[in-house]
Design a protein that fits this description.
The complex is a heterotetramer, with two copies of chain A (about 475 residues) and two copies of chain B (about 450 residues). The longest helix of chain A is centred in the last third of the chain and has 37 residues, at about 325-365. Chain A has helices at about 50-60, 85-90, 90-95, 105-125, 135-155, 170-180, 195-200, 225-235, 255-260, 325-365, 395-400, 430-450, 450-455, 470-475, and strands spanning about 130, 160-165, 180-185, 205-215, 240-245, 260-265, 285, 300-305, 305-310, 380, 410, 420. Chain A is an alpha/beta fold. Chain B is an alpha/beta fold. Chain B has 14 helices and 17 strands. In chain B, strands 2-10-9-8-7-3-4 form a seven-stranded mixed β-sheet, sandwiched between helices. In chain B, strands 13-14-17-16 form a four-stranded antiparallel β-sheet, covered by helices on one side. The longest helix of chain B has about 40 residues, at about 330-365. The termini of chain B are far apart. Classes of the chains: A alpha/beta (about 475), B alpha/beta (about 450). Chains A and B meet through helix 1, helix 2, helix 3, helix 4 and helix 5 of A and helix 1, helix 2, helix 3, helix 4 and helix 5 of B. Bound molecules: pyridoxal-5'-phosphate (PLP) (2 copies).
Chain lengths: ~475, ~450, ~450, ~475
């Protein structure tokens, strides 16, 4: 495939994309004084509409998405993104609404937010949600702020530690430390859950809370969850549920019932909204009753079948984002819930788990399975059982690219050596799963019989394996005119 | 069958047999009985696609999105060229995730590389990240960066900065122990004397927004000189459309440029998703939060792009990361890149000029009505504050009857600005629209 | 610059120099002076994209497309699943032309191959072409084919065939010397006795539409037997949605099956673009007009698809071609293929059943109102004829006041059917809609 | 690239795409009797929504369109298709309008048709248009019917011949013979125009008309057009203008002024509407005053600023299509004209001609140029000047595919040996033209130096060169269940 020029390379003096109308108002005597004007034009590309369309169309064709193929990227729930949701999200009545419109003129969108709060409360077993956070990590940050606000509201300033399992996602510790919390890592036990003994040792008066994903990043449900919650609660800490893996348990078990005080969801995972090449997402945060006062403002209330914003929440942590969250993402997730219904959501989780177990059992022959239990919606393998020296998990991943399959998450969680974290989701057909298994087995065979194929993979992608080390050593982070 | 779940009954049986499980329930046996939900979730019955479409069509019409809108206040209705929708709806873009596997993600990677370049060009800075959540969180992240750079822990926020931006910064700062101090404004601009009086050796950063919340263009050069004199970092919150015309943050002396990229082709969408942009000088490159795309080569020395400088990020550095951000606003950044491509420097400048001409015209004719005057005498961009002798709320009600959303009522956020309204006029507002507004404003009270 | 013309002034000069021309005008010197247009075309001033968008938004709102519509008469409002738009808007499809270069056109070629298969499955026939302009021209082409096959030159058209289809056939036949003879209908069905009496050794074809224009299902088997007995070809004009449920043309004995594929996912669009489908038995394969896609292999024996049997076509055979058709309705055929894929046999059958249930319900409740009765007693699909004792025009005016488009007034085409209206009820019409209609119909005259 | 299964291969019993609602009306006693019901289900694929989306997305990615690259397909005017036109065409108010809606409720769409008639009249110099024909060939058929109706209306039944140049497009003779006309071929002269002498010889009392493309399929303007019209008119025949090449002369010269009586346009060429992978198009027909009575019904009229259909046209040939034409295509073309304005259209033609001449002059070194004159919007080359034995125009075409360029029209017009008919259009940038020239020159070099590359081309397309002979010999025209 030919390399695609940069859009700047297509630039030619005098070319123009869109034609703008002239001014229809009388020339004004007053205007912004020249001293405020920029002296140098920004070097934006001067290109035609054809140029722009061809350029970005060509770029799109060098990208793998769910619509182009299987995408079992563990922890990311790359499920099919229903097209009807995209259409709904494009309705002028939604896209055109200014966030500062009077409430009377925002009732449609307010209804979405109001109902979504209710739906997510029911799905998670919490008491109230804020839909403001823009992504999972943003939800975590919001949640951690609530933890802080809660303790401080009780005059309890000594809790400066957050406990996080060694298997946790990087955003968990990063979130905690952004707020100045010390991160205490709790070990995992041999079944992949939290080491209860260790937890007991570290939980104490300085524990602000515990952040936990359940099923965890190994795809395993922590069977001791009730005990874990008890330990942390007894120590005076709060329980934070990272909802990245909720796709395993919808309609089956709810974080609120497990004992969690705060939860964030990733609408762009569990609730089918597209990942947009890296975003936008949406990371609603739900809390139990006692934490409700601390939620960000505004919340949406309803009175006499009229929806309105409630800003009058004196204990609120404040705002974590302009306006009310990534509305359009929330809208798509809302449409998804309406399309699925209660049975559909449960069936989604059941099927996600079925699919994961099905693949796991087919692959354990050729790949190391560190935790031999039924998994939930995903599972983690620990590299190849049999292979030529030097063949890595990265090689396996890159070889998958040649088959039009996006590789699983690799080298995460950190506690599994050479990890391959595989999450098929429920939107894949058995044929796709079978094909994946076949290809993974083929790769295992190549690792022994024709390892060069792996080392040099990928072979048929738009570019071959890229040098990430050079990129970081000599950063080229923008185009420059020469 | 449920929509979006293509596993048939037969498949299910086969798969369970293959796993060696007797039932689906068996796969969930590790969940303690007491925390299993013994009932169905209480949610509305599922709607077939056809009903869904009808429901949402009706719901969307409960919004007054078709009203003529003179409100900005952080979200702007600019013209969105057709091609943007055609490009961002390419499913290879929107159904992908963060480009962890660069070999099959060159599309979004190159687009973000181009986006970064454009943001650098607009701001005059050296390095841009791949976007954060929005302009407000960008400002908050910038304050964190500044605290990190300076080792100080106080931030000065002039009241002329958008209230929502200040709120978000405050929320972030409060939770992480950074002190927030407000600075006054006068004539719609940061009160430089007040600011100076509050700058001290503890000040990590000053955040200046320009054009500020009132639409006024701040004397940034002067402000930043004072900021630098105290050893603090100058964070400038800029509007990207205005940068087609106004001096760049880097030229004005800012250390960190942030802002909201919404106006660059992103629809209003009741407040999101938008994107926050962040750009810094090279020396701060490794403290920048979020994804950054860099150029490299493949094993055949062909050019390619990858996520880089990941040693800053949470998935590598965990608690030592420069931020916790993971998912960002990539599709909105793509949108901005397409917008800036189709506009070019000339087009962007033209948009900015149209905004200026039309808003100056609107300001002049509104000020020409008795009972209305301009609140501030400073130069402004796209937005201006009007003071009325009638109640702002009443005026807006009257306008609403004529399918017009009037200026933003500033009293919400500035108790001292009773009956002050912030009007916004962009290139999509026609002279006829303005004259229509003025006509209604000028009518005798009812 | 003009939109869509990316040659700059500098380019132009360079290129003229390279050609060796002094000016653009020089390139047009071979056009005699007297026939050069010495003035500007009189057309409206060009509109920038922004104005264009506004103009068309307003223009589109002058249509009453949001009225509840009980009209079919050859164009049907069925539910169009979301994914169709997402697929047919893939620019690789819609910005391509006829796949003359198969190596870079496998997408549309394979899709058409799949379309052909689906049409064969629906009609029970062996071979389908890649589409013609619409159902009416498909019928006309079928008559031409039949004349060619039989060497005869008369066609019999029962009046129960859609008037527009008959008009088009007549236009084609008149211009090419084929005689058109009409046959009567009774009880909404082709009058078999009249038909038989007109069949003779000069009859090339009989075109039977079923469900016919009145919605009635013709006794095709019987009709086609008579047709065949006279040595003529039986052309069946069928509705593709009904074929999810009703017996296929091939089983009924038709020689050529045609119809309009509009209902398969194509929006109404004020009458077009739709698509005509045509399918025949294998023996007539080489007389079929239009593009046909076939399977083959490449030089490495990999499967691929190409346009085939081109020896039938105008670009090879010129005046000896089976038709002059070149551009067809490929994108609409793609639409139909996506529709039939997403529906499957079960879904299509369900749509057909919903149409039947709802139209039978509507017919029953309308007939329950005094002054209204069903005109014909024959089984029908989706459409039925109602006779009223009031003026059809008045009824429709009354309905229009309530934002309803009532039944099609048959008197337009059938003077004998005064105050007869053809109602259409598809799966998108709800019971509430029907009850609402009935309610208004039932009200006393004004 | 992997081969894409047929959608039928993805079919699995029990899978389903869209979910339909249940019936909301009471079960009816009456229904269609069983004897009418089909006994065998059609074998449509049973697939999921994900399957359908992935399948057709994958197919699309194996297709070359204007948005993916240069498409200089002669005679087809593959110009850029503006996106705003697509958006306009998707407005609910247009897509949702039933063709049998009352006129009062169709004023928006009627305005489009009415104005379009006027615009095209102005652009072509004719007196009235019908927008009903669905494509160029359909326009030709309509035009030929009008020719017939005209002569017959005058009691003139002897005119059974249509004269057509040997350079004409296949649809011209095919159209004529569909209506029983005998086709008389008129020779081209050495400058590529009609051989006047020959024309004089064959024009006579049996001449119904002459069909001509001007600029013709060689891309050359027939300088003798006035004389040609005179000869045919003198013989009592009508002049038919095949408007496929109007993109060369908009705002510069009008067929009506040249002397033509009837013209068809291809909105999908000249007026930028997308070609849809083979259609839909639109082929409006325009006529001079005396032929107006014969136009298809209905026409659109306006009275008291209200638009309505006029069916009361007793001499009309009747209808050539259901309803009123390919409305949506007409709508896009209408938007195009509004976007361009008079100057824009002229500039388009000027630039199309400039671009063609530019390439032509750059290529005449390496390729035979049979008519050495300035061309109009396209030109025809006659194969390579220098090449290894057996290298064909087809090889050149196939080799272009490897560069992501759609080949020119090949082996047409028939009067040029090894023809390559190149039409760049005005929507291409100079850089694209330069790149094309470079590639064409490179291919010329390969034809001498590394001819195997050409013979085996294309190399990097989804499939290699396909066997068209086998396809025709053993036709496989549908999938069958095995
Ligand atoms: C377990 C877990 N937690 C948190 C996150 C962060 O979510 P986001 O990327 O939406 O910020 C992720 C994302 O991959 C995750 O997998
Ligand atoms: C010169 C000429 N005439 C007529 C036609 C037929 O037009 P259409 O394909 O729209 O039927 C074409 C199409 O390629 C053509 O090039």
């Amino acid at each position: 495939m030919e390399r695609i020029e940069l859009i700047f390379d297509r630039s030619r003096e005098g070319k123009q994309g869109v034609v703008l109308p002239g001014s229809d108002v009388p020339e004004q005597a007053l205007r912004i004084p020249d001293e405020y004007m920029r002296r140098e034009e920004p070097l934006l590309p001067e290109v035609s509409e054809t140029d722009v369309v061809r350029h970005f169309t060509a770029l799109s064709r060098k990208n793998h998405g769910v619509d182009t193929g299987f995408y079992p990227l563990g922890s990311c729930t790359m499920k099919y993104n229903p097209k009807i949701n995209e259409d709904i999200a494009q309705l002028d009545g939604f896209t055109g609404l200014h966030p500062c419109s009077p409430e009377e003129l925002s009732q449609g969108s307010l209804e979405v937010l109001y109902n979504m709060d209710k739906f997510l409360v029911e799905i998670t077993g919490m008491d109230r949600m804020s839909l403001q956070p823009a992504a999972g990590a943003h939800g975590e940050l919001t949640g951690a702020m609530i933890i802080k606000a809660y303790h401080e509201s009780r005059g309890d300033y000594k809790r400066d530690k957050i406990i996080i399992p060694d298997s946790a996602h990087g955003t968990n510790p990063a979130t905690a430390s952004m707020l100045g919390y010390k991160v205490i890592e709790v070990r995992s036990d041999s079944r992949g859950g939290i080491d209860l003994q260790h937890l007991k040792e570290i939980a104490g008066q300085d524990t602000a809370g515990l952040m936990l994903t359940n099923p965890n990043t190994l795809g395993l449900f922590d069977e001791n969850i009730i005990e874990i919650c008890r330990i942390v609660h007894d120590a005076g800490g709060l329980l934070y549920y990272d909802g990245a893996n909720l796709n395993a348990v919808m309609g089956i078990s709810r974080p609120g019932d497990m004992g969690f005080d705060i939860v964030h969801l990733n609408l762009h995972k569990t609730f089918s909204t597209p990942h947009g090449g890296g975003g936008p997402g949406s990371g609603p945060v739900g809390v139990k009753k006692k934490l409700e006062p601390f939620l960000p403002v505004p919340l949406i209330e309803k009175r006499n079948s009229r929806y309105f914003f409630d800003y009058d929440r004196p204990q609120s942590i404040g705002k974590v984002k302009m306006f009310y969250g990534n509305f359009q993402v929330i809208l798509k997730a809302y449409a998804y819930i309406l399309a699925m219904g209660a049975e559909g959501l449960k069936k989604a989780s059941e099927t996600a788990v079925l699919n994961a177990n099905y693949i796991m059992r087919k692959l354990e022959d050729k790949y190391n399975l560190p935790y031999n239990r039924n998994c939930k919606h995903e599972f983690v393998l620990s590299g190849l059982k049999d292979k030529k020296d030097g063949i890595t998990t990265m090689d396996v991943a890159k070889r998958l690219l040649d088959w039009g399959i996006h590789p699983p998450t690799v080298y995460f969680p950190l506690i599994v050596k050479d990890a391959l974290m595989i999450e098929p989701t429920e939107t894949e057909s058995k044929e796709t799963l079978d094909r994946f298994v076949e290809i993974m087995k083929g790769i295992a065979k190549e690792a022994v019989e024709s390892d060069q194929l792996l080392r040099e993979a990928p072979h048929i992608t738009p570019v071959r394996r890229l040098d990430e080390v050079q990129a970081a050593r000599k950063p080229i982070l923008r185009w420059k005119a020469d | 069958m449920h929509p979006y779940i293509p596993i048939t009954e037969v498949d299910r049986e086969e798969m369970l047999a293959s796993i060696g499980a007797g039932s689906i329930e068996e796969l969930f046996e590790d969940i303690p009985e007491v925390i299993r939900l013994g009932r169905k979730l209480e949610l509305p019955d599922r709607k077939p696609e056809m009903e869904l479409r009808n429901y949402f069509r009706e719901l969307s019409m409960k919004n007054g999105s078709d009203y003529l809108c003179f409100r900005g206040a952080g979200a702007y209705r600019h013209y969105i060229p057709s091609i943007i929708g055609h490009i961002v709806s390419r499913s290879e873009f929107y159904t992908a995730y963060t480009p962890y596997q660069p070999e099959v993600s060159q599309g979004i990677l190159q687009a973000i590389f181009e986006y970064q370049t454009m943001i650098c060009e607009l701001t005059g800075m050296d390095v841009s990240n791949a976007s954060v959540y929005d302009g407000a969180t960008a400002a908050a992240e910038a304050v964190f960066m500044a605290a990190d750079i300076t080792g100080r822990s106080k931030v000065l926020l002039p009241l002329s900065v958008s209230p929502d931006v200040r709120r978000v910064i405050s929320t972030y700062c409060k939770a992480s122990g950074i002190e927030v101090v407000e600075a006054a404004y006068s004539q719609g601009l940061t009160d430089i004397n007040d600011l100076k009086s509050k700058l001290d050796s503890e000040t990590a950063a000053v955040v200046v927004q320009s054009p500020n919340f009132f639409g006024c263009i701040e004397p940034c050069r002067e402000l930043f000189e004072s900021v630098h004199a105290s050893g603090a970092a100058a964070v400038m919150h800029a509007d990207p459309i205005s940068l087609g015309m106004l001096e760049s943050p880097a030229e004005l002396g800012a250390d960190i440029a942030v802002g909201d990229g919404q106006p660059l082709g992103n629809p209003l969408n009741f407040g999101g998703p938008y994107l926050g942009f962040m750009a810094v000088r090279e020396k701060h490159m490794r403290r920048l939060p979020g994804r950054i795309v860099g150029e490299t080569v493949d094993r055949h020395a062909n050019r390619g792009f990858v996520l880089t400088l990941q040693a800053r990020e949470q998935h590598i550095r965990r608690e030592k990361a420069s931020s916790n951000i993971c998912t960002n606003q990539a599709l909105n950044a793509l949108t901005a890149a397409v917008y800036l491509s189709i506009m070019g420097s000339k087009g962007l400048k033209k948009v900015a000029e149209l905004c200026m001409q039309k808003s100056y015209y609107a300001a002049q004719v509104i000020a020409g009505i008795s009972k209305y005057s301009l609140a501030f005498g400073s130069p402004f961009f796209r937005e201006f504050v009007v003071k009325s002798s009638s109640k702002a709320g009443d005026i807006n009600l009257k306008l609403m009857e004529q399918n017009i959303i009037g200026g933003y009522e500033l009293e919400n956020d500035y108790p001292e600005l009773k009956n002050h309204m912030l009007f916004c006029v962009t290139e999509i507002i026609s002279k006829k629209d303005i004259d229509n507004l003025v006509n209604i404003l000028g009518r005798r009270g009812r």
